[in-house]
Amino acid sequence: AGMDAAYYPVQARALLEHGRLQWTDVPLVFALDAMLARAAMAFTGWDLDQALVWASRVVDISCEPFAAIAVFAVAWRSARGARSAIPAAVACGAVATLAPSVMRMVGDFEKQSLAMAFMAASWVAMAAALGAAGPREARRATAWTAAFLALVALTHVGTFGAAMVAVVVALVPWAVSGAVDRRRLLRMTAMTAVGAAVIVGAVWWIAPRKVNALVEAPAKLFAGGTRGPGGPMGPPPGDGAPFGPPGRPAMSEGPRGFEGT
Q1: Low-confidence residues in the chain, pLDDT < 50
Q2: Would you say 161 and 140 are in contact if contact means Cβ atoms under 8 Å apart?
Q3: DSSP class of residue 228?
Q4: SS3 16
Q5: Measured CA angle at 67 (ends 64, 71), to 5 deg
Q6: 63 within 8 A of 114, measured Cβ to Cβ
């Protein structure tokens, strides 16, 4: 386990003892850790520390296999369920689990691991929505896509940004293929935009600086470091966050060295 591994039991402990996180963050993974730890204490008699560490490890090691299953499903679906495509689909799922960059997350970046599983599940639902035979099936698959994207956002905001990029990448070739009518295209585009806005708004209310980091990420990526097109991207006067609920003071985002977005 790396430095960030201790972040999760500490946050889950605060949730159990005080009903809120010690440092502002999106709450889903910590809520899962806290519920699992509470169950472990009830059934095993462990103390809180033992239960929290165990719960964090269980959630961590369980996430990426689910991501592999979802990646396998997407790869196999793209091959129209052909049996000959099973080995290639298995290889895609294995890469999603066994690649060194992914294995690095186990034991250290629990939020990213769980968010990756939800993101992969959103790909399965998105593929079903785009390939739906009728409007009812398309609505159902679209609702599942939105639900999984919301779970991504409530787990790790940076992964939500990557998931939305994947949604756009999937929508563009589908839109320009000519195989979809204009009304369905407009409806899908509007639903995507409204759904993304609602999810981002919810995350902004829970942890505004996470959204700030997501908004600033492209400038940091393409401009280098923390410099934007016009110079250093320093915080504006006030609470140091360009977006945030009116009147809400700046909140701690966690100790130095622990995870950011």
Answers
A1: 1, 225-253, 256-258
A2: no
A3: E
A4: helix
A5: 140
A6: yes
Q: Report CA Rg, the chain.
A: 20
Tokens of 79: 């091959």
pTM of this structure: 0.74
**What is the pLDDT, as a whole number, of residue 39?**
94
Q: Specify the length of the chain in residues.
A: 261
Q: How many CB atoms lie within 10 A of CB 223?
A: 15
What does the alpha-carbon distance between residue 187 and residue 48 come to, in Å, rounded to a whole number? Answer: 49
Residue at 61: amino acid letter: I
Residue type, 199: I
CA distance 21 to 10: 9
Tokens 């790396």, residue?
A: 2
Secondary structure element (H or E) that encloses residue 231, with its range: strand 231-232
> What are 208's two structure tokens?
């505004």
Nearest-angstrom CA–CA distance, 50 and 89? 38
* 3 state SS of 94: helix
Half-sphere exposure of 226 (CA within 13 A, CB side): 6
